[in-house]
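Bench notes, bay 3.
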Amino acid sequence: SDTQHRARGSAHRIGFVGHNFDTKGGPALLEAYEQLRADHPAVSLVVATSKDVPARYRARGDVDWIQNPTRDEVVTTIIPTLATLVLPTKGDCGAPYAVLESLRAGVPVVICDSGWLDEDLSEPAVVRCTPDMVARAVAEILADDLGERRLAARALWNDRYRLERLHDDLSALYRDRLR
């Protein structure tokens, strides 16, 4: 059941959270997952999406598919169980909330360098959007036995996105404009 899948966390669990599996790079992630499983048999993949995933992908029995999770479920029961969030989208927006929520939870992120981020997210693994590069970045995160990547993700959140920081930046902007 979905509840069992959500509760099962692992040091080798990778995740995908996105509205549209195809446009957010899901097929590239599945190819990377195949490569990862060859060297990391304990790796597992969870895909949480609100749009129907084509049957050719859902037929895979080695992926935990979660359809239409609420934002609360994503934040409280999916993201915290991940070793890394992988979002190999080819480019369509600023940082999706799943990336920001993952950083907030201290979950390292693998994203593609496709020019779609205006933020400097250099702490997550930013790679060219090929299955080989995605697999390599995820393998590096899985090999982080000391948890340094998790600490770096949380530090990036604290440095750039916490409410107090955004408030300070906005206040400084207003002060400069009102001079």
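Next record in the batch:
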Amino acid sequence: VLLSALLGPVVARHREYDAQIARDRQVLERLTKLDVSRERIRDAARRYEEDDLASLVYSQEMPPAQVALDVQKRVTEILDKSNAEVKTVAAYNLPADEFQGSGIKVTFTGSMESVATALHEIESGRPLLVVEEMDIKPLMQGRMMRGGNQNQNQQQAAPQSVQVQLAVVAYTPLARKQG
């Protein structure tokens, strides 16, 4: 009886220690996994910095109207450089759950070469611009032009002009809702 009275508290204490060790082992395993993940997170952050990925999108602090104005400025400058003639420009917004699309709908005319050049420039700059809608229609024009110094039987094809309507947007992430 005396032996069980002395060993009872010792055995109970031993069980408490075992339970605490098991809990601490689980915590240690989680912390070890976090430590391993920390290195992967550092690598991802380093690649993010090295690849300048932040420049791919507009800051989420920038108001959608300001993003749309910047998109308008960039697109009209690109169209001017590619010798396209801008006809109309209007605001164009695409709200979504996680992103806000802010931009413009623009109508312009130009040769197929100038359109191709403009589209390449629009889609390759930073922050990224996305062509959401595109409609290209040929403009009615004389198909053939006579060369000035060539004889009358030889004719030269005139470059095809087209009218293009584009919706160009930049997507910005929306602030995440807490809760």
